[in-house]
Amino acid sequence: MNKRPNAKNERLKRRFLEYRKYARQLSEKTLDRELAALERFDVWNGRKDFARFHIEWAMGFRDHLERANTANGTPLGKSSARAIMATLREFTLWLSQQDGFRSRIRASDADYFNLSRRDEAEARASTARPAPGIKQAKRAFKMMPATNPREMRDKALFGLLCLTGIRVAALVSLRLKHVDLEDKSVTQNPREVATKFGKSMTTFFAKDFPEAKPALRAWITYLEDELLFGPDDPLFPATALKASASTGFQADGFDRRPWKSTEPARKIVNAAFVAANLPAFGPHAFRHMLARHTAKTCKSVAELVATSQNLGHTDVLTTLRSYGTIDRDKMRALITGESDGVVLED
After folding, report:
1. The pLDDT of residue 8 is above 90
2. Which of 166, 302, 312, 323 is the most buried if burial means most Cβ atoms within 10 Å?
3. pTM here?
4. Domain shared by 258 and 306, yes or no
């Protein structure tokens, strides 16, 4: 298990990842996961040459994953095992098409990198993802102070998440010019905003958070009038630090640059919910919140489709899956029509 990397295998991995990056257009994050899956298989298999591939390797690896544990000792999740097997399946299929391997590996050999039907169903099962209700988000927002510029920024950030459910990577890369308060919209230009898959989109403010817009307006006014920020300056600038003899460093206004990562935004959101005696939801939870609220209250299919597009989903089914499953009582009420308003509670 501790053998040194096999040079031939490493070259094949590199060529496969180049194919996945440039031909299949996968992101660096996805490529990192695929490399980890290939390395896991290679280590388990004792670094044997891929050229000697046999279907028994695939069968043995599946048995290995069924018994595998994570770093903290818990059983490896079925969805994780499914993702690992999918990478090995794609790799084997690609390998079967390479010179020198066509006579040794058949395309059908890739099919052995599959979970059992039971495990596959478990991996695909929809699970309810933690997300706040509308009332919980409103409570956390209301309790956030805005007595100084940093608090104003943090409250505006929380408010924009309530209004749009924008992805956190896009959120921290927004510039002032991307927000139009009169149009109630955020323009996500992939040339300037870190959107998923480089998609261009316009996101509009949700109707259920009228209290969030004044906080956002107050923050933008402060940036423009007090700090003299321009259209190309960050909407949520990083906190500036200055040296202090007693504490080392302390906050000192804002830098004219965005945060280097999404972590500060996550901490702001977590802290706001905790301060309201609620679970420490993260920024992505707002997307599930808005999707579920629309699924519960929409009056037409068009409204559901509009929400799906507003969240940047390419398929309305993605939005519906965010709603997750419902319990037996709510299911009965919906099917029989005996809801009495219970199903629409948030």
Report:
1. yes
2. 166
3. 0.73
4. no
State which residues form the domain around 338.
289-344
Of 69-73, 193-197, 246-250, 269-273, where does the model show the most confidence? Answer: 269-273
Structure confidence by residue, pLDDT tens digits, 169-206: 999 999 999 999 999 999 999 999 999 888 899 999 99
156/150 Cα distance (integer angstroms): 10
> Cα separation of 193 and 171, whole Å?
8
- 2: in domain: no
Residue 326 CA from chain centroid, whole number: 23
Please state the domain count of the chain: 3
Contact 178, 184 (CB under 8 A): no
